[in-house]
Amino acid sequence: MEKIKSVYKKINLADWKRKEHFAVYRSQMKCGFSLTTKINIAKVLPFIKENGYKLYPVMIYLIARAVNKHDAFKMAMKEGELIVWDYVDPIYTVLHSETETFSALTAIYDKDFTRFMANYNDVGERHADNLHFFPEQPPENHFNISAIPWINFDSFNLHIADFTDYFAPSFTIGKYKKQADETLMPIAIQVHHAVCDGIHVAQLISTLEEYCENIETVIKSQV
C-alpha cells in the first residue's frame, strides 16, 4: 500500500491546559513512566480461531486503534513545535527464529480491519528474509509495540538512556494465562510524562478493554 502523506496539527502551548506540566517534564524534571496491567482477551481468542487469524497482528490492530483514538499518544516535536499527528502507525517487532534476533516493521494504520491486515501481511511477506533491525525507514508518525509471548509477566520496564523529546509510547505484550472465566494478557505501557499522565493511560486501557470485549462489533465499525 502506498504511504500517504502524514498530516498533523500544532499545539498552541499558550492555551494548552497541560502547558506547565509539559514544560516541567520536558525540561526541568525529564521523566517518563511505565505501567503494567492485564487485559481480558477471552473474546479475542475465539474470534481469531473462527476466522483464521493470528493473535499478534489482531492485538497490534486493536492497540493501534485505541492509540489513534487518544491525542496524548500521538504527540511529537517537529521543527521545534509540539504537534499531534492525525494518525500514527505501529512499529512492531518480529522474531527471526534462526538467529534469535528481531526486525522492527511498520504496517500503515487503517481503521478498516481488512485493509490493515492486508498491509500487515504485505509488509511481512516483503521482509520475511530481511534480518536488519529496520528493513525500511520507519515513519515519523509512529508508536511502538513488541511481544514477549514466552513469559506471563507482572511488570516490565524499558530503560531508555535518553528519550528527550521522544514522545511515542511503547507497548509490550506477554503470554496470556487463563484465570477462571477470563484470559488475561499482560501489557506494559511506557510513556513520556511531558505529554501523558496516568489518567490518559487509564483512558487508553479502558478503550482497549472495550475493544477486546466487543471485538466483532469493533471490527465491523468504522466509527
From TrEMBL:
The keyword Transferase applies. It comes from the Bacteria. Keywords: Transferase. InterPro entries: CAT-like_dom_sf, Cmp_AcTrfase. SMART domains: CAT (SM01059). SUPFAM superfamilies: CoA-dependent acyltransferases. GO terms for molecular function: chloramphenicol O-acetyltransferase activity. The active site is at H193. This is Type A chloramphenicol O-acetyltransferase. It comes from Sphingobacterium puteale.
